[in-house]
Design goal:
six-stranded mixed sheet; 219 residues; alpha/beta; seven-stranded mixed sheet; Metallo-beta-lactamase, Chain A
Length: 219
């Protein structure tokens, strides 16, 4: 499904996260890997897979990274993740694979991402926004000119990422939401659920208020 000119939404079935293909060049997240055959067929039918050079993981959890090895073996693409989630991805620790009844699928990271790094495709210029909270290395990808935010599990159209997992932190998520609230956002492309157009910043402010109450309660 095309959610913006040049951005295709795939996956999102069962426990799988949303998988975004951008300009036929960049893949954001890979799901659990359970539906890899279906995603592979979809890509082969519609795109030149030789143009897919990079896989960016928004964080280390299995429902976003379990398909990494299968996609990299197939596409020969580089895998990129924030420096704070690199160790988890390479060791399988804290990827939550067991929560899905699976074993962690470790994979070597090719590119370590940091806050404000740039990831470019033919028509998009994304900035890495480090948004710890759901995990220590959670990121969003922000296209400033087009006001697009690919938010992983930091932010959904109906809530925010859970902070009751290992390496999660509600205080850090609260600060990350405040950071996101300062960005003009028209298009929200979350890690789960449907995209949202318009009203995103107002929604974030509501989530900040709710999250603040949770942080204060835990203090």
């Amino acid at each position: 499904m095309q959610v913006y000119n040049g951005i295709i939404l795939m996956g999102g079935v069962g426990f799988d996260c949303n998988v975004y293909l951008i300009d036929g060049e960049l893949l954001v997240d890979t799901g659990t890997g359970i539906f890899f055959p279906e995603l592979k067929e979809e890509l082969e039918l519609a795109y030149d897979i030789n143009n897919i050079k990079t896989i960016v993981d928004t964080h280390c959890h299995f429902d976003h990274t379990g398909g990494n090895k299968k996609f990299r073996d197939w596409l020969k693409a580089d895998i990129a993740i924030h420096e704070n989630d690199k160790q988890s991805l390479e060791t399988g620790v804290n990827t939550m694979a067991d929560a899905f009844g699976e074993k962690a699928r470790t994979v070597t990271v090719d590119r370590v991402l940091k806050n404000r790094d740039k990831i470019k495709t033919t028509n998009f210029n994304f900035e890495v926004i480090w948004t710890p909270g759901h995990t220590l290395g959670s990121i969003c990808l922000y296209e400033r000119k087009k006001k697009i935010l690919i938010s992983g599990d930091s932010l959904f159209a109906d809530g925010v990422g859970r902070t009751d997992f290992p390496n999660s932190d509600s205080g850090k998520l609260y600060n990350s939401l405040k950071k996101l609230s300062e960005l003009p956002i028209t298009y929200l492309l979350p890690g789960h659920g449907m995209p949202k157009i318009g009203g995103v910043n107002f929604m974030i402010r509501q989530f900040i208020a709710a999250t603040r109450e949770s942080v204060v309660a835990q203090a």
